[in-house]
Amino acid sequence: MDEKYDLSYNEFFKDKDISTSIDPLTGVLDRRAFFEYVDWLVSQKRQFSFFLIDVDNFKNINDTYGHIVGDLVLTQTAQAFISVSGQEGVVGRFGGDEFVIAFENVTEYQDVWLRGNKLAKIQLDGLDDYGLPNLTITVTTGISRFPLNADNVGDILNIADKALYRGKNKGRNCFIIYLPEKHANISLQGDRDKRLKLMQLSYSVFNNLTACGEDISTAIATVFKSFVSYYMYDHICIETHKKLNYSVISPLSPNKKFSHIPYEALENIVNTTGYSNINNVEELNESAFPEIVGECKKHGVMSALYCKITAYGKDYGFIRVDMTNTVRIWQNEEMSMVIVAARAIGLLLHYQGKTLEDLPVVAPVEVGGGNNA
């Protein structure tokens, strides 16, 4: 690192030589030194907020661009955290692609929210040299507060981990401030638990749709409302050949009016398996997909997911999901749920001999939880 991490302003570090306590790759405190500081804050009963931060889908960055770029991303991310934190926060590397920050005397909800929002908007420098000027790097953060949430370091870490887990399930590229009334029942899951959860969610979606009898409209509306509430989508709807229908909109969505996207544009962008996920519209090749890019820009959509509704070789339409003004790193679980819903709707239409155009036009509705859910 060209510049050494200066913590001389901090009471705990001002008389200490931290040269042997710096992570050699990223230039921030190593895990041991950081938690020595946190232990001191707790022992002195000094209030602080604790940020546990994960670089989204970092394994994909390493696998796609190589470890040199991966190391550069970690280094640039760490330096961005130092810059944003200033003299309010102390930054450490927890391990791998996870970082930690402690903000002493920052525990009021609004003050914590402002710091989380700044960290969520970090910009990295130096990637242009590797031919990656448009590589989007996002982070997910879980936040706990001492002594509001816990009175010891272990619990402070576990609670931040719960909030981080919620952020990952929400779609990443967000920060979650732990609130016991919202997050106390979160259970951290291993790989086996995640597989079981995916099976249970798939069964729930399929059962809600196929148990509706002739009332396909109510079934679609119920499932779409649950998607917006659980995954915090800004907008989800069905696109037919001629119209947009069954819109469910989050109350947090900046845009409340969404219009029909030409069917040919959707067919052009989905892959051979019948779906397409766009993490960042700005990274999409506009010359290849001019209509989709134009429609997304018109609605302020930054991320989108499209899934074709089919059954026995017949195309009925699409499920369309939009995120406005935010990049979303689409996760396998949520894409799987949308695919399950699309397949179930296709089967219902097939066996009832209907098309999406046969279903009544349903007025858009707002539903969903508040921020930092």
Q: What do these coordinates show?
A:
This protein is of the alpha+beta class and 373 residues long. It has two domains: 19-183, Alpha-Beta Plaits; 191-366, GAF domain (Beta-Lactamase). It is built from eleven helices and eleven strands. It has helices spanning 31-43, 58-65, 67-85, 109-120, 153-170, 180-183, 191-210, 216-231, 263-269, 290-299, 332-352; strands at residues 48-55, 89-95, 98-104, 139-146, 175-177, 235-239, 244-249, 275-278, 301-311, 314-324, 365-366. The strands form two sheets. The chain has a six-stranded mixed beta sheet, sandwiched between helices. Helix 5 (153-170) links the parallel strand 4 and strand 5. The protein is elongated, with a radius of gyration of 23 Å. The two termini are 37 Å apart. The mean pLDDT is 86.
What fold name goes in the CATH topology slot of the largest domain?
Beta-Lactamase
Q: Helical stretch count?
A: 11
Distance between the termini: 37 Å
The CATH architecture of the largest domain would be 2-Layer Sandwich
Sheet bearing the most strands, described? Answer: 6 strands, mixed
How much of the residues is beta strand, in percent?
15-25%
CATH class descriptor of the largest domain: Alpha Beta
CATH superfamily of the largest domain: GAF domain
